[in-house]
């Protein structure tokens, strides 16, 4: 019981950094994987095709 | 906690991204280069000229490959952030991480981001005909989210009703159907396109498996110092 309460308290405090990292990861993926700016598109062209991201 | 998660994701993403980039450049880039010869009309696989073997050498452009390497590492760091966030959150809920369960996290990421979306939208070569890009991106994102929810329900609940719900959510985008073009007529030979899909999924599965293992290993070492 004590262990469970402890784990729950820990999981609540973990939520903020976890969400922060997910948002940061999603922002990186959007920029490298989907953003249409020509420079980004051209440099990431081959990897976008290889992973199957629809970029054009 | 954030600092440990961030450093684990950076290390894991960099290492896995480097391996993924090498695999991509070796296996996938030559197919892309050949497809571009058809896209630009230097080669044709049907029509007047008949069938002629390709005699144009496929030469790697190393500046282009350098950009591919950097952007692959960036994308894998993004993937690693999602995987490490998942492993660290499960850890905080009392599910202790192991290096070998990292493999499952990696394969779950592969299923959600590459395998299940490819059922409706297989990886494309340049010069292929496809439906409008926004519609495809919406279907793709919806499929990724549904697959993640489904995998979560299989992995973290012990109630069969959640599993049934997971199966239904998993199927939903495929029952709706991915946007496809109304007419076909791409310039790329189907043989080349098929080769590319197989290679893309194979390289993706291997790279994601490595990413999952590295993510768990770095998270374990960073969070337990």
The low-confidence parts of chain A are none
Shape of chain B: flat
User: What Rg of chain B do the Cα atoms give?
Assistant: 20 Å
> What is the radius of gyration of chain A computed over CA atoms, rounded to a whole number of angstroms?
18 Å
Order of helices and strands of chain B: HHHHHH
**Multimer state:** heterodimer
Major sheet description of chain A: none
Class per helix and strand makeup of chain B: mainly alpha
For the sheet with most strands of chain B, the description reads: none
Distance between the termini of chain B: 12 Å
Structural class category of chain A: mainly alpha
Form type of chain A = elongated
| Beta-strand share of residues of chain B | under 5%
What is the count of β-strands of chain B? Answer: 0
Question: What percent of residues of chain A are in strands?
Answer: under 5%
Q: Whole-number average pLDDT of chain B?
A: 94
Task: Tell me the distance between the termini of chain A.
Answer: 54 Å
Using DSSP, what is the number of strands of chain A? 0
Topology:
The complex is a heterodimer of chains A (56) and B (225).
Chain A: H1 2-33, H2 38-43, H3 45-51
Chain B: H1 2-39, H2 62-92, H3 99-120, H4 133-156, H5 160-176, H6 190-223
